[in-house]
Amino acid sequence: MFKYKRTGIRNLAIALIFTVAIIALGAILDPYNQGQLAVVSMLFIGVLSVTLLTGTSGQISLGQGALMAVGGYASALTILNLGLSIWFALVMAIIVSALAGLLLGFAAARLTGPYLAGTTLVLALALPSLAIRFESVLGGDVGLNVDFGNPPAWLVSAFGEIGYEQWQLYATVPLTCLALLATANILSSRTGRMWRAIRDHESAASLMGINVSNNKIFTFVVSSGFAGLSGALYGLRGIVGPSVYPISLSLLLLTGAILGGLRSIAGALIGSALVVFLPDLIEWATRPLALSEQIGNYLPGLIGGVLLHLTVILNPGGIAHALHRHKNK
Amino acid sequence: MKFHPSLSKPGFLTLVAGLAVGALALSSLPANAASDPGVTDTEIVLGMQLPQSGPASPGYNKVDDAMRAYFDYVNSKGGVNGRMIRLEVKDDAYKAGLTVSTASSLINKEKVFAFVGSVGTQTHISVIKDINRRGIPDIFVNSGYSGFYTDPKKYPNSFGDLGTYVVEAKILGKYLKETYGDKKIGILYQTDDFGRNAVAGFATAGLKFTPKETAATFIAGTQGSLGLVSQMSQLKAAGVEVVIIAAVSSASAVAISTAAKIGYAPKKWAIISVGADATTIQGLLYAGGVPFATSAAMLTGVISASHAPAAGDSSDEFVTAFKKINDDFNKGPSKAWDNNVLQGMNTAYLTTEALFGVGKNLTRKALVSYLETKGSSLSSAALVPLGYSKATHEAYTGFWVGAYDASTVLKPVGTDRVVYTTDSGSGPVTVSTYKRPAMPVDALPKGA
Lengths: 329, 448
What we know:
The complex is a heterodimer. Chain A is mainly α.
């Protein structure tokens, strides 16, 4: 009993340290990197959804981007149609996307491996058509205009001038902190152990008395809620629409999760930072070469793809796993 | 594999610290002495975003190189009031999520003075509010979506660079109705504001379409993967004799080649100007195995409209001058002269004219106010004036209707080139009386 309590407090402490570190970082960075860091914080939640779903319970989803879109649309409609604040909208995003995850979970509980991957991929592909089909509500191809708005007066009076990017970051980080804490607690709880048991051997888990299909559905619900929150925040950067959540976004989340380390929270953070900052890093590194746009524009995709292949072949545990192994030598 | 569920590892803290150091290393802080960012005594930095890669890029990816070529020409003549113009370009691949990041990069990293000539309706929607609330001029936007310009209170700093799709569709629609009123007219359009604005304009001109029958739609960006087969089959089955296309050039190319493949030969094609660039269409058809001679024959007789002289009109002084500048200064990967290059050159020409017009004391406010008050007297290659005023920021107020000849040059449909003018509302279509001022000798405008 005492041990559980200690784990909980430790998780809380680390989540808080993470939050303070990001906020401190936000105060010293220039606006562009504040914006990029905000994207890292948003995608971190999305990558955590992959960590839970794929890394922990072993279910592959290629459609997390679509669940992000569900969250995005839920929050945008809450803001635009009900006139509620972005905070209510974010709660709504979690609820609606979790419900979508529940539906998806019923299908997922019966599917495995490539069949599940295919089903979720179709979801991501179908999104633009849905947005067009229900255009009067979802705004069609153009999407719905929403944003974080201006920083609240109390924050400005407490901390002085706050830029738009800085406000994006500060509005996102507390939620990232909660997602981080929730993931850490789930993973170190009985639920997390059940999910891992299912991932490692379904029949064995079942023999130990774990209800496999219920747990699979539950994983989908939780993971979808995370994806929805991430998508709502991502949409609040300016617009919710099909071109914000393309199929490549689903693959980006998976790439981030695999590069960083599919089975660890630190890996999810490393992966999110990597996919966001990699293009900037490549641009910075190749600037002296003055590459033509025809090469430069495709380099991030190419290098990301090569890194992904190398990770799967040479270091399947991802960067987090490699760092840990190195330290324990 | 050993699994480590908690965050207990000191590695996590090291990681956060590492992230901090990494992000700091990435940040660069160029300081500016002038009051507005992007302007110094020696330089003006302008920003632009467009699809340089991805399905929507063909054709449009030449606009930035053309603009840079003209600015380089201006710089070679001493710049604008001693300031050299530098154009910073970002590729958003036509993904709105990415546009938000590239805009932030242009604003915060490159510290641009103004956005100029950005391409794309969907993508620009994602950033237009942010650009405007920061007070950054957003001039000569290469989107014909009227919603950006008709309410300057909403977007005070955004100014258009194309005639709106409504204006073009009204003028084109009037011509089609008068000429092909006895034929069955149908439309293929992309389901975004571009397509819808065009449909609204045609409706004002009295051309109505029936969904699933004479109106075929597709989602912008899917033309390549889906091939528009069901759309063209639908129009064929409906017996449509005159097909209007309101879509990007890459979609026009797909529509024309797919129609040929399924044995559908409408009597007439009419394409909204932004989707009717002959060079782009021919290039894409060539990549699909259609020789240039065949595609030229396919395009012959296709109807379109323009607010500017045809790119192939070698008797026009602007075309000749821009072509020369393009040959001398364009360093882009594909600098072949076409409508996109002409449009880019003209955008840069107008920008230069406006920057000269504002004068030495260049501020963001001064530029916006200059365009509102003097913008309508700026002259360029266009055959109609800009419609800028305090009430609207719509660009070109008129078009002339033409058809491609055998060498894919747009030629007037009648014996003379008649330029029509109208508004984005329900106003009538009338003949324009505008006389374009002559071009300065060195193709360097010094402001209205």
